[in-house]
Design goal:
With 382 residues, the protein is α/β, with parallel strands linked by helices. It contains 11 helices and 10 strands. It has helices at 130-144, 157-168, 187-202, 219-233, 236-242, 262-274, 280-292, 295-299, 302-305, 326-338, 362-380; strands at 12-16, 23-24, 30-31, 34-41, 51-55, 94-98, 149-155, 173-179, 312-318, 343-348. Helix 10 (326-338) links the parallel strand 9 (312-318) and strand 10. The radius of gyration is 21 Å and the shape is globular.
Length: 382
């Protein structure tokens, strides 16, 4: 194991909003009790001023770094970013990540038991938003004794959470780093998400969302949803470089409907791997939360959304990301500048598409390390 790794880590759980004090939701409903699964790395300093909240994307979880046991084949999903001497240096920062509500990795979601019935919520779980996710995280920060976060950072849906944090809790965030994200889900993004949801609905084993009570799982529909989504995470260039038109373990077309191309096999593998670690109903809930994300609808204009923020911003995009483009990132930057906010922007060259923020990139790592290091010095001098 790398000496700079955070090593063996363990998940923690925080339960709150016990009835009758359920948490209000944007839908008008209420949810409680709520459990959040989370992990922490490093130590919180005496002033509680060095906390960094990492927000995960659609299929992520709280396991950002390290391993749960020495037998784990892979570390956490952003391991190269967290640890001694890494951008989120655990000798300096206290790093936190929680699984979002609606998820299936330890936090309350459709697979959780409904206290009113003693059975899984399934589709009785209330529809949630990115704002609901953030307000649940704020309760976790209260529990941990953190009044003000040094930084909120995340890519894709994690970037949406970073924006929501800076807007809803302006005095609780020193800096925000939204990466490969947008200020509102556009029609193309909604369309891709809807096709994925329809694939799940069309699976006979979905059973109108009640599959867990019947001992079934809509794995075919969920696999297709993941395959479709994964295409949007790549770029044409990365697919051409990685696969091109190469055939899978053959030299000629099969002239049948079995797998011919390497790219077909790759997508099938992505789907098969995903169904082992994710829940279909959670996929429905989280993609719907992403689709509802729209700062313009919430505030009238994107500019008004950022009017009261006090955080410093580092906005990052990737040159080959066609899901959340550089133009969408610049819309965030433009709105911040109109409000005379402190914002730095960088488009990072990469051929990896939307998933570039998950791939080790020295350019991105240095920019983030320098930015948060500068903010940390300023905050320490306060």
């Amino acid at each position: 194991m790398n000496n700079n790794s955070v090593g063996i880590v363990k998940p923690h759980f925080f339960t709150f909003a016990e009835p009758p004090r359920e948490m209000p939701l944007d839908s008008g409903g209420r949810l409680g009790p709520i459990t959040l699964a989370y992990e922490t790395y490093g130590e919180l300093n005496e002033r509680a001023s060095n906390a960094v909240l990492i927000a995960h994307a659609l299929s992520g979880d709280a396991h950002v770094a390290g391993r749960h046991s020495s037998a784990d084949k892979k570390p956490g999903w952003w391991d190269y970013m967290v640890g001694r001497g890494r951008p989120f240096d655990t000798d300096r920062y206290f790093v936190i990540c929680s699984n979002v509500i609606g998820g299936c990795k330890g936090s309350s979601g459709p697979t959780s038991l409904n206290p009113q019935t003693g059975r899984p919520y399934n589709l009785d779980f209330p529809v949630i938003t990115v704002g609901d996710m953030v307000r649940a995280q704020a309760r976790l920060m209260d529990h941990l004794g953190i009044e003000r976060l040094l930084c909120v950072v995340g890519g894709s849906m994690g970037g949406m959470q970073a924006l929501e944090w800076a807007i809803e809790f302006p005095q609780r965030v020193a800096c925000a780093i939204p990466i490969a994200t947008t200020c509102r889900q556009n029609a193309q993004g909604i369309a891709f998400d809807e096709v994925g949801r329809q694939a799940i609905y069309a699976d006979a084993d979905w059973c109108e969302g009640q599959y867990s009570s019947q001992g079934r799982r809509p794995v075919k529909g969920l696999a297709v949803a993941r395959m479709l989504a994964h295409i949007t995470y790549l770029s044409e260039e990365s697919m051409r470089q990685k696969f091109g038109r190469r055939l899978r373990q053959k030299e000629a077309y099969g002239f049948n409907f079995r797998t011919d191309f390497e790219v077909e096999s790759y997508l099938q593998h992505q789907g098969e791997s995903f169904i082992k670690r994710f829940d279909a109903n959670s996929y429905l809930y989280i993609t719907k939360a992403i689709d509802y994300f729209d700062l313009q609808r919430d505030f009238g204009t994107v500019e008004k959304a950022f009017a009261q923020v006090s955080a410093r911003f580092l906005v990052l995009s990737f040159s080959s990301d066609w899901l959340y483009t550089t133009a969408q990132a610049k819309e965030i930057v433009r709105a911040l500048k109109i409000n005379h906010k402190n914002v730095t922007f960088c488009e990072i060259p990469s051929s990896y598409g939307h998933d570039a923020f998950l791939i080790e990139n020295p350019h991105m790592m240095k920019i983030i390390a320098d930015f948060i290091g500068h903010v940390y010095q300023e905050e320490s001098a306060r």
